[in-house]
């Protein structure tokens, strides 16, 4: 069977955490026949993972343009071209609006707003079919909370929403350069990042009510969407895909809903 | 001087003193407007109009001749029409699996066809430009179980509002809609008697209080009097509830 990404090269940034969303996506891309360069900040895990999927590993700090350009160059040097670039880096800071410090805000903006900006600049340069590239698909992982509300998450949500707008700008300006740009928004996702929280009795139940499909998401759901957006079958650009089982039709629980749900669960234990 | 001094307004959907229509008429009169109050049941509305020193007419929004007569009434009484507000609504609650052609048509007749014809006939009577205001709903902004017929027709009407605003701008006519949240009014009074429902709703309202008909009246006044560059918009008066959600039946306990 021919994979849906056969003949393509993909760069996945944010894949240095074992079984995190970046790794699940990269693994799926490789399974669909893509050559994959995985990038992030911890080389030991990246090397292990690259060996697992038969790809290449490189160190990238998404806030440094030189790192991003070097990663794109590595992909082209190793495999001849770069067709897919996906940024799954993020920092899920949960902090009250008034309590968020200026340092935290700056760090968030660096990682989740400036980072994607530099990421898009660097990937456009590598993919531009009027400048030696052959076009490609740029994919940014966003969040349902860039559209709907959640408490104590303002810096994160603002940066994600700003980045979704950059995606529209890139789609508008570089479509004739063969480049598509889209973002994918997960809701609450079972992942190493959320594993501890999901263990708290009552917590998951508080969120579950907001999901018409009756379950929270998985990284595999996001990977499946990423394959479509990455493939040549996809004529979509400048869009934001909600891959959250219908969460945006309902919404996240409030702080009080979560507290009540956790209290009820611990009372029945 | 009142904010609507010298203006003539029609307000459709004012058959009860607890209604958005009556609250709006009262506010408009305070600001100097001359008003025609209209509702399906002519006797109620006549009594309410008398209280405000206004005039009244029976008008069923599902009858196009009635709508034309409403616009004609304003011209006949006051020689002009500047502001037209439509609050007519019918509460159709059916789950998707139980929805009926009858319920869907009933909602469409009032909210969708009615709104479009209301805009048409009011605009044709507005010789000096004006402001047309119709009513959307929280349910068009956030998913409300069992409100397919109601919300679908309201959301469709909001699209008509945008198209009308685009076409009528050159005549100096602005067209907007107001989306009230869960508002205590004649239509919703029964829901407000049920504490399990009010408790589930209040949690979803960031401002922590229910919308009242006076909030809607103030918004209508602003759209009528000052919002000179606002057209084609849905003005959200939900207390922020559109940021959260409409409770599900399981939340009613």
TrEMBL record, chain B:
<dbReference type="InterPro" id="IPR020904">
    <property type="entry name" value="Sc_DH/Rdtase_CS"/>
</dbReference>
<dbReference type="InterPro" id="IPR002347">
    <property type="entry name" value="SDR_fam"/>
</dbReference>
<protein>
    <submittedName>
        <fullName>Epimerase</fullName>
    </submittedName>
</protein>
<dbReference type="Pfam" id="PF13561">
    <property type="entry name" value="adh_short_C2"/>
</dbReference>
<dbReference type="GO" id="GO:0016491">
    <property type="term" value="F:oxidoreductase activity"/>
</dbReference>
<keyword id="KW-0560">Oxidoreductase</keyword>
<comment type="similarity">
    <text>Belongs to the short-chain dehydrogenases/reductases (SDR) family.</text>
</comment>
<dbReference type="InterPro" id="IPR036291">
    <property type="entry name" value="NAD(P)-bd_dom_sf"/>
</dbReference>
């Amino acid at each position: 069977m021919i994979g849906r990404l056969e003949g393509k090269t993909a760069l996945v940034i944010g894949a240095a955490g074992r079984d995190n969303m970046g790794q699940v996506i990269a693994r799926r891309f490789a399974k669909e026949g893509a050559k994959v360069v995985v990038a992030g900040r911890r080389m030991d895990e990246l090397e292990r993972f690259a060996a697992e999927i038969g790809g290449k590993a490189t160190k990238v700090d998404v806030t440094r343009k030189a790192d991003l350009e070097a990663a794109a160059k590595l992909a082209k040097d190793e495999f001849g071209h770069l067709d897919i670039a996906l940024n799954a880096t993020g920092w899920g800071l949960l902090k009250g609006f008034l309590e968020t410090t200026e340092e935290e805000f700056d760090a968030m903006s660096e990682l989740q707003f400036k980072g994607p900006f530099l990421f898009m600049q660097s990937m456009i340069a590598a993919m531009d079919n009027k400048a030696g590239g052959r076009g490609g698909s740029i994919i940014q992982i966003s969040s349902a909370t860039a559209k709907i509300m959640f408490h104590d998450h303002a810096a994160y949500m603002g940066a994600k929403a700003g980045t979704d707008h950059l995606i529209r700008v890139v789609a508008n300006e570089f479509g004739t350069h063969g480049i598509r740009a889209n973002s994918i928004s997960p809701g609450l996702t079972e992942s190493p990042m959320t594993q501890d929280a999901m263990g708290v009795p009552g917590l998951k139940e508080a969120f579950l009510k907001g999901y018409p499909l009756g379950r929270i998401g998985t990284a595999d759901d996001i990977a499946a969407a990423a394959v479509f957006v990455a493939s040549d079958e996809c004529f979509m650009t400048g869009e934001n895909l909600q891959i959250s089982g219908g969460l945006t039709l309902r919404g996240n629980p409030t702080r009080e809903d979560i507290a009540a749900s956790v209290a009820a669960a611990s009372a029945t234990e | 001087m009142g904010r609507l001094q010298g203006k003539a307004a029609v307000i459709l959907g004012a058959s009860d003193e607890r209604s958005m229509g009556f609250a709006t008429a009262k506010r408009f009169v305070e600001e100097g407007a001359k008003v025609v109050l209209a509702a399906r049941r002519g006797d109620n509305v006549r009594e309410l109009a008398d209280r405000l020193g206004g005039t009244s007419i029976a008008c069923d929004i599902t009858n196009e001749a009635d709508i034309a007569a409403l616009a004609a009434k304003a011209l006949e009484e006051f020689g002009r029409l500047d502001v037209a507000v439509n609050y007519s609504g019918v509460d159709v609650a059916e789950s998707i699996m139980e929805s009926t052609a009858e319920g869907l048509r009933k909602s469409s007749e009032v909210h969708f066809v009615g709104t479009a014809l209301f805009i048409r006939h009011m605009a044709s009577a507005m010789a000096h430009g004006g402001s047309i205001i119709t009513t959307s709903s929280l349910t068009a902004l956030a998913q409300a179980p069992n409100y397919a017929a109601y919300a679908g027709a309201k959301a469709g009407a909001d699209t008509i509002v945008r198209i009308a605003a685009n076409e009528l701008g050159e005549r100096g006519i602005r067209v907007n809609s107001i989306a009230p949240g869960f508002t205590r009014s004649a239509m919703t009074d029964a829901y407000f008697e049920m504490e399990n429902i009010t408790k589930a709703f209040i949690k979803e309202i960031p401002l922590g209080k229910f919308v009242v008909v006076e909030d809607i009246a103030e918004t209508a006044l602003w759209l009528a009097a000052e919002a000179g560059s606002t057209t084609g918009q849905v003005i959200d008066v939900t207390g922020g509830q559109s940021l959260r959600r409409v409770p599900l039946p399981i939340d009613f306990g």
